[in-house]
């Protein structure tokens, strides 16, 4: 190419580039408007123990969160951010607090706007503390230990109720059930996993049950995982309590209930507080005889809410079980999306402020409008369920009840 032709070609290129820049500045390019209007994706940390001893619950939590994200994105994303999509950054806490901390560090480095999840109290306690170092909003899905919320961390919010509220509700309802049946239950044995969740609940029960007329014969802690409950059940059989109160995660709960059945131990009632399997359709389907008549005070969905029933169908159509981990995480993501809309920003401080003033009521839980006080949702409350037939029925409160409690358990 000659020098003259090279100069002409370069001049044409510069002229066309200048025209292109001017056209872009004036908005006259033919690119679709929607592409220019849509905001950058908002990265959301989705943290659960999807491997290790708590993997089933963690996978269920991730399922609920990702369903909500998919629905939000399909409906047009975050409108206040130009239709920005939520981009999930998935993390595996590996069923340990240390694993949760490591994932928070990765998520912070990835630039997430907030984190949802954690599941176990011990993971939530550690992960939210790590997130606080980066002023990173952390929305607890399930973890119930009260000290998650009593540390004064401005970044940490819990959508569901904590130990104190759940234990008081559970004990009040237990007293009512027992009184209505003529007070057949007087003695109790507690079987609890020995981490923050189970040991904390056992401590509360030991402090409160005696004042409500129940004698605690023994409290038996166990590690997670535990693969044999024969010795525990032999102890229960020897002391013959009226009530057994389990406080453990899914796998251990199922194994305990099956061992009780196999050894023909049939107390007047099995009354769970946050029972890992007691309010689980999976447990009811796979081990219906072991599950029958078990009562539980736990997280639950609003059976009157069409949105809750539509989500149940969607989950079951995928061949999955509609567990509390699913609808708790689903609701948490919707709550966070609402905060993003009101903040009109992915800035962490603005999201924290929006969460702090939330009145979100578009969830699927039997709650009132969201109201955070020191990070705790004061509108959250548990319900009591009981396995009756091949279904799980709500027995308290009356406004949500679909059946009356069966207590004491009929003879086998």
Description:
With 412 residues, the protein is of the alpha/beta class. It has 2 domains: 42-160 and 304-380, Rossmann fold (3-Layer(aba) Sandwich), CATH 3.40.50; 164-298 and 384-396, Response regulator (Rossmann fold, 3-Layer(aba) Sandwich). The chain contains 14 helices and 14 strands. It has helices at residues 3-26, 33-37, 55-74, 97-109, 121-132, 163-180, 196-208, 230-239, 250-262, 281-286, 288-291, 306-317, 324-343, 348-356; strands spanning 42-48, 86-92, 114-117, 138-140, 156-158, 187-193, 215-222, 243-247, 269-273, 295-298, 372-373, 376-377, 383-388, 391-396. The strands form 3 sheets. It has a 7-stranded mixed beta sheet, sandwiched between helices. A 5-stranded parallel beta sheet has the order 2-1-3-4-5, sandwiched between helices. Strands 11-12 form a two-stranded antiparallel sheet. The longest helix has 24 residues, at 3-26. It is globular, with a radius of gyration of 26 Å. Mean pLDDT is 91; it is low at 1-37.
């Amino acid at each position: 190419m000659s020098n003259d032709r090279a100069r002409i070609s370069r001049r044409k290129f510069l002229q066309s580039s200048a025209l292109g820049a001017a056209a872009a500045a004036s908005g006259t390019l033919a690119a679709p408007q929607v592409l220019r209007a849509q905001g950058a994706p908002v990265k959301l940390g989705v943290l659960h123990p999807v491997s290790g001893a708590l993997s089933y619950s963690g996978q269920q939590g991730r399922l609920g969160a990702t369903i909500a994200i998919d629905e939000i994105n399909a409906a047009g994303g975050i409108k206040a951010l130009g239709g920005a999509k939520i981009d999930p950054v998935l993390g595996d806490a590996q069923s340990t607090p240390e694993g949760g901390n490591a994932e928070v560090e990765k998520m912070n480095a990835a630039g997430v706007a907030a984190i949802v999840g954690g599941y176990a109290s011990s993971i939530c306690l550690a992960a939210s503390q790590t997130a606080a170092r980066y002023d990173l909003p952390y929305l607890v899905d399930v973890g119930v230990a009260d000290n998650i919320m009593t540390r004064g961390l401005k970044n940490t919010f819990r959508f569901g109720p904590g130990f104190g509220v759940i234990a008081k509700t559970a004990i009040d309802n237990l007293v009512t059930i027992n009184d209505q049946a003529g007070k057949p239950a007087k003695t109790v044995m507690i079987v609890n996993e020995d981490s923050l969740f189970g040991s904390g609940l056992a401590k509360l029960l030991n402090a409160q049950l005696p004042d409500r007329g129940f004698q605690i014969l023994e409290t038996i802690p166990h590690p997670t995982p535990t693969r044999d409950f024969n010795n525990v059940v032999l102890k229960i059989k020897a002391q013959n309590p009226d009530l057994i109160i389990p406080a453990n995660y899914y796998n251990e709960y199922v194994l305990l209930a099956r061992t009780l059945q196999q050894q023909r131990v049939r107390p007047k009632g099995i009354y769970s507080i946050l029972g890992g399997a007691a309010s689980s359709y999976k447990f009811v389907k796979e081990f219906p005889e072991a599950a029958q008549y078990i009562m539980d005070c736990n997280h639950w969905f609003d059976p009157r809410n069409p949105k809750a029933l539509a989500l149940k169908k969607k989950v079951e159509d995928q061949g999955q079980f509609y567990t509390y981990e699913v609808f708790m995480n689903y609701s948490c993501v919707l709550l966070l999306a609402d905060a993003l809309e009101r903040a009109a920003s992915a800035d962490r401080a603005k999201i924290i402020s929006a969460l702090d003033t939330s009145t979100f009521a578009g969830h699927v839980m039997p709650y009132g409008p969201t109201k955070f006080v020191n990070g705790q949702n004061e509108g959250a409350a548990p319900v009591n369920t009981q396995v009756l037939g091949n279904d799980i029925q709500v027995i308290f409160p009356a406004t949500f009840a679909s059946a009356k409690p069966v207590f004491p358990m009929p003879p086998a």
